[in-house]
Amino acid sequence: xxxxxxxxxxxxxxxxxxxxxxxxxxxxxxxxxxxxxxxxxxxxxxxxxxxxxxxxxxxxxxxxxxxxxxxxxxxxxxxxxxxxxxxxxxxxxxxxxxxxxxxxxxxxxxxxxxxxxxxxxxxxxxxxxxxxxxxxxxxxxxxxxxxxxxxxxxxxxxxxxxxxxxxxxxxxxxxxxxxxxxxxxxxxxxxxxxxxxxxxxxxxxxxxxxxxxxxxxxxxxxxxxxxxxxxxxxxxxxxxxxxxxxxxxxxxxxxxxxxxxxxxxxxxxxxxxxxxxxxxxxxxxxxxxxxxxxxxxxxxxxxxxxxxxxxxxxxxxxxxxxxxxxxxxxxxxxxxxxxxxxxxxxxxxxxxxxxxxxxxxxxxxxxxxxxxxxxxxxxxxxxxxxxxxxxxxxxxxxxxxxxxxxxxxxxxxxxxxxxxxxxxxxxxxxxxxxxxxxxxxxxxxxxxxxxxxxxxxxxxxxxxxxxxxxxxxxxxxxxxxxxxx
Length: 485
Description:
Structural class: mainly alpha
Number of helices: 22
Low-confidence stretches: none
Largest sheet: none
Number of strands: 0
Number of domains: 3
Strand content: under 5%
Distance between the termini: 65 Å
Mean pLDDT: 84
Shape: flat
Helix content: over 70%
């Protein structure tokens, strides 16, 4: 049997095992320890297949599997839905880029189009499931040699083809007649709908992992996926200069207006006629976040479209882009000041905290834009932005956002400021230790349905029994604390 056929069969076998394991572990929610366990199994089998199949792993993307394991562990650490979602997305991005650049190629010098198209390419290969490895890589004539092997292979194919048809028609017959449903349960002793659910999950996880393993170990991945700029889409320095110059003037006009608020502080905001905290902060922060988020892609697109016919053209672009970046930092400062004033008056929420964190990430990426794109090192920009994104998600895990929100708002309560007792009870189990510590200070504040904070917490975490697969450090700690109150 050839080496490629043997590796292809290993991929199918590993995918089938991961499908069964995924059904067993990930069927129950909310995810906890089950997700990192399954991720470890995926990575472990991929490494084992690579070693047995002598698959070279000289690409820079191979180190991203460690990043995937770190963020998978975050799902078992934090309970906040937003944090769990960010960890899950980080795992998907890490594994897709590892599949794309695990065997060969560079990540540090890959451009933005390489990252986007490479991730999409890995996603397409993964979505193909077991079809490519079954059709192109496994020589079934080698597998079917011998009298009994050929018959066993034919029987296996027949069973695989018949299984979905039996499930489909059987489910329809069970739904159509109660007596037939009772007969199926008495004879086979199981619920057909539950069996269908198990088979669906096994098929889903097996399909996805087979495609991912094939993309990472066997697929022929192109070295470069750079989108070349068509000549018809290129722009001269006049067009680009007019666009950036006019935007710089607009940004400058806004910054001039903002200077007095930045240096005037809260007194200037309050004393301005008809200007309240809500009008100044609530209706300004998210608009400025949007401006900052749109400006960076605009600068990257303008740099990509620019037709640098002379060295002077590039210098003009750098000056105009540098002015815009400098003004953007003032816009960021204005946005952060608005949010600070708003939080001082109304407290901290998840949306406000995550939006502020996003602004911090954008600021870091803007600095990296200056150090790379504006110094003729555009090929290094994408990797730095990716690392900044991973660092931001890791920092979010480390800061424990829900606990920070609860602690900030309780400190405001102790200072005699407005306090939303109901909101803090909607936070995840990450905030439970802070709430338990301050229950005496919170007292018997009444919530919706005349609950107290303690009663609401006890209902959420005090009496709930969980499956071991959904074990999570924050939920376990919250349950233990509430039982001890």
